[in-house]
Amino acid sequence: MRAFVASVDGYTEERVAILGETIDGAWAQVRSQITPAKGVAGSMDYRLHETNLRWTVYDVVSEHGSLVANYRSQFNTVIRASSAAQLLERMRTDRLRREQGAQRPRFLPAPLTAGLLLAVLTRHTPSR
User: Fold this and answer.
1) Structural domain of residue 96, as residue ranges?
2) Is residue 128 part of a domain?
3) Mean pLDDT, 10 residues at a time, over the chain (128 residues)?
4) pTM across the whole model
5) Is 104 within the bounds of a domain?
6) Where are the beta strands (DSSP E) in 4-100?
7) Cys-Cys with 28: which of 18, 48, 66, 92 at CB 3.0–4.6 Å?
8) CA atoms within 13 A on the CB side of 44
């Protein structure tokens, strides 16, 4: 997650191009390319699922990998070292610590990140 946040948090003047989409029933993927003012362009793909006539993003894939795969790997590491119950307790404790200690959220999405998600979600509103 930190790699993903670091990769998009600094975006301010980049150009975003939607390269295409594929829809297979209730599942979809939107491919995009982000071209920075300086540097090399990178890809960012959004995986979506439709439930109750609403598309939601369930995974984001970049050069750094998949957010879902990253979390799955981290969870498996904790479960192997302890247990699923301890993973859940650790997640609850971390959440409470963040809620109690934070005056403001640690991560506020950059305008590009928020814009990308909004564009993806509004572009894929079912026309039924």
Assistant:
1) 2-123
2) no
3) 55 80 94 85 91 90 87 88 88 85 56 56 48
4) 0.60
5) yes
6) 15-24, 27-35, 42-51, 54-62, 65-66
7) 48
8) 24
